[in-house]
Structure formats: C-alpha cells, structure tokens
Write the structure tokens for this entry.
Amino acid sequence: MQYQSTRNKAIAISSAEAIKMGLSAEGGLFVPESFPTVSVAEIESYADMTYQERAYAILSKFLTDFSKEELQACVDKAYTVEKFQTENIAPVYKLNPHTYFLELWHGPTCAFKDMALQILPHLLTTSMKKTNEESEVVILVATSGDTGKAALEGFRDVDGTRIIVFYPDHGVSEIQKLQMVTQEGNNVGVAAVNGNFDDAQNGVKAIFTDEEYKNLLAKSHFKLSSANSINWGRLVPQIVYYFSAYADLVMGEEITAGDEINVVVPTGNFGNILAAYYAKKMGLPIKKLICASNQNNVLTDFIRTGEYNKNRAFHTTISPSMDILISSNLERFLYDISGCQDSLISDWMDALKTTGVYRVTDEVKAKMQELFWAGCADDELTMAKIAKCKEEYDYVMDTHTAVGKAVYDDYVAQTGDMTKTVIASTASPFKFNQSVLIALKGYPAVAGKDEFTLLEELQNQSGMRIPQSLSALKTKPRLFDLVCEKEQMPQIVSDFLKID
Ligand SMILES: *Cc1c(COP(=O)(O)O)cnc(C)c1O
C-alpha cells in the first residue's frame, strides 16, 4: 500500500518512508491511498485473539512494506503486560447495560498516548532500517506535559534512538515535572526551559529549521525527528483499539457481531477520533462518532456549522490535554470526506493559517453531520459528572473522560438513542488527582496537600490502586535538574549528543 499527502495526492511512498518523514514536504499529512476493509466474520474472529494479535491483524493491512517478522517484533516490544499492567492492554469496563469505557490508560504514563507512543519508536527504527537510513534518530520534543513523558517512556533504551524533551519550567504540573526529571534510560535527556510552552516549542522549531545546525548533526550521523501526533506511525496504532473493544463486546456477549455501536471520544487534536472514523470506514459497525470537547469547543462549532474558526479565546481547563484550538488531524478527515481533493484542502489550510477561518462546502458539512455528533462541556459540568458517576456507579473518571461522559449524556438526552456506546477513557484519574478530588470532595480536601498525599487520598476515595509508576515517583532520584534559556537549547542538544 502506498501513501499520499493530503496536499499532494501525486505523492506515492511506502509506509516506512511516511513514518520516517513524519510530515510531507509541502506541509500535508500522509494518508493511505485506499483503506483495507474488514468483514464482520473477520471482526468476529478477533474475539478469540489477544490484543497483540488484533494489533498485528490491523497494522499488517496498512504497513504492507513491513515483513511479518518486522511488524510482529514491533507489536511484541510495545504491548507487554509488564508495561500495561494488564493482559488486556486496553480493557473495556461496563458501566451500565448501554455504556462502556474503553480504558486506554494502563500504560506506563497512565494516559492514552502510551497506546501509540509505545509502538512508534519501533515502527520508526524499523522504517529507518528499511529505507537504508544509517543515521541515529534524535527525537526532539517540546511538551506541555503528557506527550513528553509518554515519548520518553516509549523511546527509552530503544536502540538507534536518542530523545531529548524540553518542558516549560513554569507550565507543567508538579507530577508531570516529577515524571520527567526522574526519567530513566540510557538515551534520554530532559531540560526545563525558562519560559512558557511557546518558548520551549519555538526553541525546538528553531532547531528543526536551522540548516547549519542540522548539517553539524548529520556529520555526526544524527538525524532529527519528532514524535508528534501527525505522524502516521502514531495514528495507525490507534485504529486497533476500536476493533479490540468491539471484539471484547462480542466475546462478552454484550453484542452480536454486526451490531452497531456508538463511540464517544474526548477530543483535542482529532487524532483519537479520526482513528475511530477510519475503523468505521474499514467496516467496524459504528453508528455515530460522538466528538466531545471542553470549553475550547472549536470542533463542536465546526461540526455543527461547517465553519472552523480558531479566532477565539483560549481557555485553560481541568482537561488540559484537550486545550487545543488547531486540531491538526482534522486535515486527514477533510481530505477523505471531500473525496481526496488535495488542492481544496491546501486552500482551507492556507486560509486557516492566514485568517484563522475556513468554511467547508455544504456537501462536506452534510456528510460530516451524518457521521458525527458534537458537543462540549465546561469545567463545572465535567466536575459534576465525575461526582455523579462515582455516586451512581462507584466508578471514578478522570477529567478528560468525564468530558466524554457529559457529552454522551447530552447526546442521549437529545436523541433518545440507546445504542450501546463505548466511551474512550483517555487518562487514569490519578494523573489528574487534584481536579478529580475537588470534584469528589470539594476544595478543602486538597488544600495544602502534596502530590503523594493527594494520590493516597484518591486511592481511599476511589478504591482503585495508585498506579505503580506514579507512586514510585516518591522515591526515584531526580536525574535532570537542568534549567536553560531558550537560546541555549541547541547547546543542550549538542552536549547531550556529545558533539562540538
Ligand atoms: C491527548 C489527549 C486527548 C486528546 O486526544 P486527541 O487525539 O488529541 O484528540 C484526550 N485526553 C487525554 C488524556 C490526552 O492525553
């Protein structure tokens, strides 16, 4: 199978090349030229398979240039019980007869980005080898929290890779900072940047566009790459768990193979919900894709009106991984739904860049509304849903998942649709312990308490165990106490790679 760009469909490259390059030269995103289909009988056969077998079955349809051994090795290294603390890797939890949570947060950093970032490093190093790239890949990440840690855990000790993460010294939570400065691994580097997320991000971008500096790296056989969510190697692993969840429902006799389900996804960059759309396109019986946003509801408005308008206030919410005004993976959906009109997509993306606004055609809008239902929830409603879900079902959701639940409840109230529904649960409640505890017990329950007291408090409240990776932070040595200025970032990279 060949891959083309959303802004130039004449491009035809292998999946290994697409994964190695990340982004197409003209700015477009790589997409498969066609989509494999999966029959109901095949989906039914997944019921008896392990997560790893399901992953192999789906991924092999897209990464056709990978040999069986190559792909199998990637899957086996990524989805281990040791890393995910559960045989199922992505278990489904039944809340009530028509609502299920797909728990995507059992990986090493307690959030769903592990599902992709545990396998991406292996897909990437395999792709490098397959395309005869001899340099060692250096991953540079600027992070506002979750992605940096998930990337560090994914790339740690992966041969042929180095990873350096920059985070804003003021701008990540205490627990996120602890997760990063205690990072272990023989190929990892972490530094705080004196500034905010934009400073860290601009510093990384400056390195990526500095040809002279990249030549210097090339002389030492290093090649820069990024691990961000537009890489096909991050998106394709996400398709797997929608098939897996469906197979689990079949196996548990909650549904019969062929029955339609709804899927709810708390959305930021539109990556996770795009994967669900691709699963539907491949034949997974999904009725409605329900797109849930927080107060940064640019997608809600877009799906309802057909106009994407990022010119609005940015809100800092209690579901920070969804605080996004430009949902970069939406481009892949628009390309698909518009019938692969690359020049039209280029025009819309140019308009977004220059004016912050674009409007899709009535035809695209109608198709989009047929597929999706969209809603949003503010912090107050999100908190109320966490408390109510605990009270009614004794189940504790994190803040992102709660946005999904709030929008789902709204969907049911407005449509009366009682189709069985899977809600993507994207983070462990322990990862956002402070907001979750406030939702459950009010502000006094958290006032003046440190992170570890909060974790214990939440353990007592929820009856869930603190994830081992979080409780271990208390005793782990701090390995990276470096704080640098934005201008010093290239030097930090050079020092870490030991080049001068
Ligand atoms: C990244 C993230 C999201 C948003 O996912 P997208 O693929 O960007 O839409 C939702 N919840 C959590 C916890 C995340 O880390």
Remarks:
- The longest strand covers residues 161-168.
